[in-house]
Amino acid sequence: MSASIKQRLKLEMFWPTFDPFLFCAFHNDDFPKGNGQLGPAASLSGRQIGQDFAGINGWRMYHGSKVPGFPAHPHRGFETVTIVNEGFVDHADSMGAAGRYGEGDTQWMTAGKGVQHSEMFPLVYKDKPNPIELFQIWLNLPAKSKMVEPHFAMLWNEQTPVIDVTDEQGNKAQVKVVAGNYRLPSGEIKSALTPPPDSWAGEANNEVAIWIIDLDPHAHWVLPAAAADLSRTLYFFEGQTGELDGESITIKEALVLISDASIVLKNTGTEKARFLLLQGRPIDEPVQQHGPFVMNTRQELQQAFFDFQNTQFGGWSWPDNDQTHGDGAGRFARYADGRVETPE
């Protein structure tokens, strides 16, 4: 095995992650045409409605009954970073924030001391299929930030930095910088949009990076060196074959890498190759997790369940647990203070 690669792991729907990351799900569904009510224009017969993860006909309802997705549920103690490469998500939460985002947008939510939210996948097109491809990444919070105020942020696709790189043969690579800094060969730094105020990613010394890397056929690109002793994992989620420092790699692999060396990545296939990079300094604190709550001790977990039972983390003011935003809505974000934002 190459000295750059510490471990190689296979990818399923839920991907292996390492401190400071807790979880990464890859949702890739070939949803059919919509039925005019944001659900599928297809029979739901044979599906385990409310718990449909089987992938019948290439798509899933997840916990939805009429619209695919995840109706209202609570979180405490960490952050969710949801990157939608294709398709749309309708968000609503107990802070009063809401939005429809997708087609490259990222939603970053700090659960902090507690929030409820729903994440539904509206099938907005009635005349064509509604494929969706997204990552949901859980980024831990350190003990000092577990009980901060919840926060909702939208990182619009149009404002997210994208770096174009051309190799010596004229083949192209593209790096989308959702979190972190990217140093160009000139020394110029391209910085991601600002993460939420209490995020582990907000401290430069933690070197948190969330990048999506696209390589054209036969292209090669150099992953820059970072500090030593970071968690650094590269996920090969689309394409055929590649090489990492000369070692052959294949689609649906997670490659756990050393962090303080530059590494040459090549696409040896005839189709575009796509990778997700998750990198960051470990928080290195005890982790106690049960379902949607992530704390440092069992006592704190028990308190989280008690608090939710008693306060519902602010309650749920929306008409539906599987809240959606209508057949004609475009991309928007409405914040808890009433401010409405659309991508420019």
Structure report:
One of its GO terms (molecular function) is metal ion binding. This is Quercetin 2,3-dioxygenase. The protein has 344 residues and is mostly beta strands. The protein folds into two domains: 138 residues, Jelly Rolls, CATH 2.60.120.10; 120 residues, Jelly Rolls. It is 4% helix and 43% strand. The strands form six sheets. Strands 1-21-18-23-16-13-12 form a seven-stranded antiparallel beta sheet, with no helix packed on it. Strands 2-3-10-5-8-11 form a six-stranded antiparallel beta sheet, with no helix packed on it. It has a six-stranded antiparallel beta sheet with strand order 4-9-6-7-26-27, with no helix packed on it.
Summarize the structure.
A hairpin with a 5-residue loop joins strand 26 (332-334) and strand 27. 4% of the residues lie in helices and 43% in strands.
| Counted beta strands | 27
> What percentage of the residues does DSSP assign to strands (E)?
35-45%
CATH structural fold name of the largest domain: Jelly Rolls
- Which term fits the overall shape? globular
Which stretches of 5+ consecutive residues score pLDDT under 50?
none
What would you give as the CATH superfamily of the largest domain?
Jelly Rolls
Measured distance between first and last alpha carbons: 46 Å
Helical amount: under 10%
Question: What's the mean pLDDT score?
Answer: 97
